[in-house]
Amino acid sequence: xxxxxxxxxxxxxxxxxxLNATGFEAAGFGDSTSFWEAMRQREPELIILDIMLPGEDxxxxxxxxxxxxxxxxxxxxxxxxKGTEFDKVTGLDMGADDYLAKPFGMMxxxxxxxxxxxxxxxxxxxxxxxxxxLELNMEEHTVFAGGEHIVLTLKEYEMLALxxxxxxxxxxxxxxxxxxxxxxxxxxxxxxxVHIGTLRTKLGDCGEYxxxxxxxxxxxxx
Length: 222
Fold this sequence. Notes:
alpha/beta; Arc Repressor Mutant, subunit A; 2 domains; 4-stranded antiparallel beta sheet; 8 helices
């Protein structure tokens, strides 16, 4: 669930429509009162927070969020007026995860949301991942297969971490491109197949954990 706090109803409705159309669940609020009421009912995955709001402004809301243990870790993207560098810096210093400068495009909004959520998920991920004879240490950035240290490229490492963080989950090639090469990557899905092949080879016997799901993509399981 994404909460959009924006007093302009036309912009708010467009934000909610775009998020729903791109696979997110979203709810909108025109002021702090309705927002705080919703927060008592349900905790969102992320909040898009306009700075200029009637009554309690976005910076005050952000300060309260970061001061409450239950809400402090919820990622927040601040919406600021174009050119107001002070608001951007202040928001980031107060704990905002990113910002959008108005007027912003809806696809830019979606891209920033996905990037922030990916970053938060990586931070919250377990530090040491294990699967069969395979171990990945997120803090030391090391991989061991059958007790042997394996040297991987950055993309190979990120791909392995993605699979090990979500054992059994099937990822399509397009999803892997989006997760590892980011949303603006303009390459072909063949890139994924090549990296999967080299990763399997480097992992030796543990490479068998990487399974091809015919006609769909790949998953990792023992």
